Amino acid sequence: MNLAYMITESDKDIEILQRLLPQNLSQDIKFIAGESSYRARSLASSLLATRKTPVALVLDAGTDNESQIFERHDLINYVLNQASSGIPYQIFLAIPQLEIVFLHDKSLIEKIAQRQFNDLEWQLAKSSPKEFLKTVFGNDEQISARIFDSINDEEIKILQQEPLIQEIINFLSSLITSSVAIN
After folding, report:
1. How sure is the predictor about 180, in pLDDT bands with cuts at 50, 70 and 90?
2. Number of compact structural domains in the chain
3. What is the C-alpha to C-alpha distance for residues 47 and 138, in angstroms, rounded to an integer?
4. Contact call for residues 3 and 176 (beta carbons, < 8 A)
5. Which domain holds residue 168?
6. Burial of 45 (0-12, 13-18, 19+ CB in 10 A)
7. Which of 5, 11, 12, 78 is least surrounded by CB atoms within 10 angstroms?
8. In Å, how far are 6, 24, 139, 161 from 157, measured between CA atoms?
9. Can you tell me the mean pLDDT for 142-164?
């Protein structure tokens, strides 16, 4: 059963979400990479209009400017609302990028990197997580895989407490509750 679609900007984002979302929630989700922010939004709109299946759209905000984030969220919400016909959907903007989830717990990322970060480095990390992780782990295409290979289930639970991941879990949980109520 396909409970919902989860649309992201890239395959890397899908990899992160599949590893962080609880199995009982992710098993009935169809993950699709839009390959860009615009294509992901367009795909979400099309799926809402044609498949009549709930959609979770996960995008990088690309900024931490609150007014720009609000404006972007509002615009995307308007477009999806036009296509949804009452079908549930939710927009999740990772501020500034989805890789921020790896920085939820400073001591955990320090353990994985095997070094301490000073306040300036940590500030840079929070403002540009992708670049920070590339700097720390090398310009490796498999940074998220390297991080996941370095942590255990308890540490994954720590990352699952990151607010964005919690919002996604809550949305998906509400769909399961709705699905059970309908059946």
Report:
1. low
2. 1
3. 37
4. yes
5. 4-182
6. buried
7. 78
8. 21, 14, 26, 7
9. 94
